[in-house]
Amino acid sequence: MAYVTVASIRAIYTALSSTEKFPDPTLSDYISEFEGIAEEYRGVAFEPRTETETIYVDCATKLLNLKHPKLRSVTSLTIDGVAVTVGDLELDKPIGQIRYEAGFPAESTVVVVYPHGFDAPTKGIARGCREYVRSCALADRSQVPRDVIGQSLDGGYTRYSTPDWEAGRPTGYLEVDRLLNAAQDFRVPF
Fold first, then answer.
1. What's the Cα-to-Cα distance from 68 to each of 35, 80, 105, 118, 173, rounded to whole Å?
2. The model's pTM
3. Which of 166, 177, 183 is nearest to 135 (CA)?
C-alpha cells in the first residue's frame, strides 16, 4: 500500500490529469521515492512495513535494539538458527527494543522478523507526498528549475533550493520539506 494513490493525486492536481504526459507508473515511482525519503529522514515507517533484521551480538545481553521504532510485534526470532518462543519476549514497542530474560549469548547471530510503523501516514506526510509527486512531475516535464531560495536582481544571482539534509531540506522542495520537518523525528543519534 502507498501513502497516497495516483488517482487521489490526479483528483487534486488537474495539471497531472493527462495519463499520456504523466503515466501512472511514473507517478507511482515518485510516490515510492518520497516514501523512502520520508522514512529515512524521519526514522520511522509511516505505514506498516515488515523487516527481517540480522543482528550480530558481540557481548551477552538481555536487550536488543532494532533499527526501526514503532514495533508492532515480533513474528519470529532465532538465535544461531534456533527459534525462540515469541511469547517469552518483552517488547518496548515505541522505541523498538526487545528484552529476552534468558538472554542473547555473546557472539551469536539473531534474526528477527517484525512489522513496524504507523497504521497510516499523517495528513501532513500524505500532503507532502502529493506535493512531492506534483513538484517532481511538473519539473521533469517542463524543465522548470527548483524553488528559488535567494535572488538578487541587480547582481544577477539566483539560488535554487536543492536537497541538503543538514540544512533541513531533504527534497529541496520548500513546501515538502516544511511538511517533513513538521513530522516527529524518530532517528536515534549515534
1. 15, 22, 22, 11, 26
2. 0.85
3. 177
pLDDT tens track for 36-93: 999 999 999 999 999 999 999 999 999 999 999 999 999 999 999 999 999 999 999 9
Spell 167-187 as b/e; 16+ CB within 10 A means b: eebbbbbbebbebbeebeebe
Domain that holds residue 148: 6-45+119-182
CA distance 38 to 130: 12
Residue 189 maps to a domain: no
Does residue 188 fall inside a structural domain?
A: no
Q: What local confidence, expressed as pLDDT, does residue 141 receive?
A: 79
Is residue 157 in some structural domain?
yes
Q: How far apart are CA 145 and CA 139, in angstroms?
A: 7
Residue 158 resides in a domain? yes
